């Protein structure tokens, strides 16, 4: 169900967060003391459109001499924020009603294409850590972190003139911890343990048996695209794997992504590929050789330790 999200109102006098902790590149300059002492929450007359999942607004409704902080409330597990002509700052409050309050949540954000005009920070108790720098070159890269580490603070950067600018990002919330299947910058490339493989079979968005047909590397994204020839699809939530064109030997074809640093290369043999959908793309999780998986599965089955069942013939 969709409905109107709450907008900021009143003049609560919230202070601007303190300067960010060290991050990639030099930290942005400290804000003037006058701004620190005079920040006001955005007025109720701000023009924007929102629902429970996404927010879209414009900084043109703010008076030029004011540094307003506008509150944005989102209650979905996925959506986007788009800020035209950014001025002042946004505080993005994520209060998802699709997860139990006590559950650990991981937030991932990915800048919109050509996003410019604002820096995006992780903010907790007034401390800022830079996540996305304004004008960062290349395709947007996802950043993932536990939601308990803080919220999102989006600050407009000084601009000359009134050229068209739009800053924003997509976001996804999940109950998985940051790691290989969330495309976190620190995602390990190590093989999965037996326990991780068995859990991946039960919890992944896709589980398929197949072989690596080709690998293309994309240095600008720091990623590799793995082109798969699939003989069996056990599960897929999205149509990542589609029937092969006639004359290509049957089965399915599809593509999954992983980090460039993992050094994936084409090679012989069948594998069990698992993973999750992330911002509309299939991200590789555990991928053991199929014979190794079958051995682990049958051993766990014999001891009654399989978390779920699947055919391994």
Task: Explain what this protein looks like in three dimensions.
The structure is a single chain. The protein has 313 residues and is mostly beta strands. The chain has two domains: 20-100 and 112-133 and 149-172, no CATH class; 187-302, OB fold (Dihydrolipoamide Acetyltransferase, E2P), CATH 2.40.50.120. Helices cover 9% and strands 38% of the residues. It contains three helices and 19 strands. The protein has a seven-stranded mixed beta sheet, with no helix packed on it. Strands 3-4-6-13-8-11 form a six-stranded mixed beta sheet, with no helix packed on it. A six-stranded antiparallel beta sheet has the order 16-17-15-14-18-19. It is elongated. The two termini are 43 Å apart. 34% of the residues are buried.
Number of helices: 3
Distance between the termini: 43 Å
Q: How would a textbook summarize the main sheet?
A: 7 strands, mixed
Low-confidence stretches: 1-14, 27-47, 179-187
Derived from helix and strand composition plus strand pairing, the structural class reads: mainly beta
Total strands: 19
Sheet with most strands: strand arrangement: 1-10-9-12-7-5-2
Write down the secondary-structure element order: EHEEEEEEEEEEEEHEEEEEEH
Q: Which descriptor suits the 3D outline?
A: elongated
Beta-strand share of residues? 35-45%
Report mean pLDDT, rounded to a whole number: 78
Key phrases:
OB fold (Dihydrolipoamide Acetyltransferase, E2P), mainly beta, disordered N terminus, single chain, 313 residues, elongated, six-stranded mixed beta sheet, seven-stranded mixed beta sheet
């Amino acid at each position: 169900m969709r409905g109107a999200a709450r907008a900021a109102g009143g003049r609560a006098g919230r202070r601007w967060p303190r300067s960010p902790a060290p991050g990639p590149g030099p930290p942005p300059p400290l804000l003037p003391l006058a701004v620190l002492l005079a920040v006001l929450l955005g007025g109720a007359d701000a023009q924007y459109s929102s629902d429970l999942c996404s927010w879209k607004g414009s900084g043109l409704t703010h008076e030029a001499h004011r540094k307003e902080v506008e509150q944005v409330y989102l209650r979905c597990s996925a959506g986007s924020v788009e800020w035209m002509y950014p001025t002042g700052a946004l505080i993005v409050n994520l209060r998802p009603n699709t997860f139990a309050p006590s559950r650990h949540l991981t937030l991932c954000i990915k800048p919109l294409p050509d996003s410019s005009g604002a820096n995006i920070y992780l903010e907790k108790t007034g401390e800022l850590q830079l996540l996305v720098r304004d004008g960062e070159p290349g395709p947007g890269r996802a950043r993932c972190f536990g939601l308990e580490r803080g919220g999102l603070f989006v600050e407009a950067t000084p601009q000359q003139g009134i050229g068209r600018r739009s800053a924003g990002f997509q976001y996804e919330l999940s109950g998985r911890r940051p790691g290989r299947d969330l495309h976190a910058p620190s995602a390990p490339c190590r093989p999965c343990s037996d326990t991780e493989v068995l859990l991946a079979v039960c919890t992944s968005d896709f589980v398929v048996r197949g072989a690596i047909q080709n690998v293309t590397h994309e240095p600008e994204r720091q990623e590799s695209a793995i082109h798969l020839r699939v003989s069996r699809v056990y599960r897929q939530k999205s149509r990542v794997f589609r029937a092969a064109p006639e004359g290509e030997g049957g089965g399915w074809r599809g593509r999954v992504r992983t980090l460039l640093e993992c050094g994936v290369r084409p090679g012989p043999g069948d594998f069990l590929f698992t993973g999750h959908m992330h911002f509309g793309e299939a991200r590789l999780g555990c991928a053991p050789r199929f014979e190794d998986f079958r051995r682990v599965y049958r051993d766990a089955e014999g001891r009654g330790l399989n978390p779920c069942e699947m055919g391994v013939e």
